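Render this sequence as a predicted structure.
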Amino acid sequence: MSRFVSTIVAALIFVTVAVGERQASAQQWAEKMFDSLHHDFQDLARGAEAEHRFTITNLYKEDIQISSISSSCGCTAPRVEKNTLKSGETTELIAKFDTVKFKGAHNATVTVTFDRPTYAEVRLRIDGFVRRDVVFKPGQIELGTVDSGNQTEKQVTVQYAGRSDWEIVDIEGSTSHFEVEMSDKQGSGSQASYDLLVRLKDTAPQGHIDDVLTLVTNDPQRSRIPLAVRGYIRPSVSVSPASLQLGKIKPGEKVTKQLIVRGSKPFKIAEVHCPDDCFEFRTSSEAKKLHRIPVTFTAGEKSGVFVENIEIELEGKETSLPAIMAHFEVSED
């Protein structure tokens, strides 16, 4: 091989390696925003509702945008709750596994494509095994919306076809917020069924419920079967919006937005505060079900993109409201 050809080959190798390194770097900035890149549902009953939520958080100053989501297998249907995220914002990619049309072992690769601030692709892997011998009716415990401090209960039937001695021997919970009553085993021969009554305790915390009850059976090979429990415990007091967008502001300019705080009963606001002293808040000392809080921001001299937390404290309330994130940009342009 001549020296000229050797030089060309070496240059091509260098370019290929450099391109590969840039592509890997492009992948890494996007992958860092995901809380995980893989989920295994393991064993699932037929008809079970099977969803997993991947959390995506914008760790950067620039806006990010998800341009498309695709799945390599019809067994998994992905969707994202929000396509564009500002700095510090979070969304969820929900991957739903089909346990009705698909049986046995299946897997899928979900490809998430970003086109801002630069192009990148992130691949998520989903695995699961849908059993043919166990069926849930309905496919999950759906508690719906429950007011904080209240109880509710739902029933699900577990049906089995196979071994004559098959039994549910225990039920394990991911939290202590549920009570489960299980009926005696029904059926005979290779058929068996159980009725499960799942009760949400009145001490359960506010917010979304996304938990799992695990049925432990005497099956020597596949002894554990997850049963999803979902719902929402509505807080006694809530605030909106959760994210305050102030936009682009010139140094010294003022902008005023409004926060709405609602409660099921009259309440008082003790204090509203933020680490940035450029914020001013006007509150009422009255006890009422709805408070409108004007928020006035005066931009300082420092330019840039900023995110600040606003905290609202309620009088006589042990529970605290989630912080409101204020997003703004200070610029001369």
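Summary. The longest helix spans residues 3-31. The CA atoms of residues 58 and 88 lie 5 Å apart.
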